[in-house]
Design brief:
By secondary structure, the chain is an all-alpha fold. It is built from six helices and no strands.
Length: about 140
């Protein structure tokens, strides 16, 4: 009988993915609940096409958070979210004289750092990525 043996590293990677994804889920759900305030904020920042920006941010946050939790295409998703964090920090939290804005700026940079770690090490064994790679390694090419 074969038993699964998860290392502390695999559990840490899974919990880390959950914790980082939580902020994107919450942010996405809040955008979904109150589109007017989000679109208004984007408009106030002087960005073009605020509705398009709203929809893009909403889809990116919810889709990437889901993929991160599942551990699917984790390295790519982590890069996308890390770039998103840095871009949103620079665009929306650049008023560093305001302590709240500075905190949000630094929070975004810290999340980008954590995401870059996932882009390097992957999702671990508790992930769809691992299932896909395991299946790919057990499939042998057919001979014609």
């Amino acid at each position: 009988m074969k038993t699964l043996n998860y290392s502390g590293n695999d559990v840490s990677l899974f919990v880390g993915r959950l914790l980082i994804a939580a902020i994107f889920f919450i942010s996405g759900v809040l955008k979904l609940i109150s589109p007017g305030s989000t679109i208004g904020y984007i408009t106030a920042m002087g960005l073009p096409a605020p509705v398009l920006g709203y929809v893009g941010a909403l889809v990116l946050e919810l889709a990437c958070a889901t993929l991160l939790v599942l551990g699917y295409r984790t390295r790519i998703v982590a890069w996308v979210l890390a770039i998103y964090c840095v871009v949103t920090a620079v665009i929306f939290h650049h008023a560093l004289a305001d302590q709240n804005q500075m905190f949000n700026f630094l929070k975004n940079l810290a999340m980008a750092g954590g995401l870059l770690a996932f882009s390097n090490c992957g999702a671990g064994i508790l992930s769809v990525d691992r299932l896909v790679s395991r299946r790919a390694s057990t499939v042998t090419p057919s001979t014609l």
